[in-house]
Amino acid sequence: MTERIEFFGSKEVQNKYGVMVPGTDTPLFSCWAEVLNTPIREFKDATTKVGNRKESPNFAIKFEPQRLIDSSWKVKWRGNIYQITGIDEDFDKRDLTKLECKAVDGK
Fold it and tell me: Which domain of life is it from (predicted)?
């Protein structure tokens, strides 16, 4: 595991009128991750035939049953924000959790 990633989640907050409104992204925790190699055919844009790993990276992190990843969370890696688009938790071997991500426009 060679890359540090951080997870963010949006929590509702109470405004001055007592109404619950969506809050800003709050840091939840960070961990070490490995950026997985993705075959060219899997991350190429069909229209341009060009792929960019920084737009849709896949990460592997240590499996932690006490801290299950939520698909509504966001990941920060190398200063960029990514939306989680897929989670593959290995409940059988309890070894790694794999995350499929996509860049969020406008950071």
Answer: Bacteria
Residue where the block lists tokens 């991350």: 43
Is residue 27 one of the residues assigned to a domain? Answer: yes
* Domain, as residue range, for 91: 3-8+22-103
| pTM over cut 0.85 | no
Instruction: Kindly report, residue by residue over 37-62, the tens digit of the pLDDT.
Output: 865 555 555 565 555 556 889 999 99
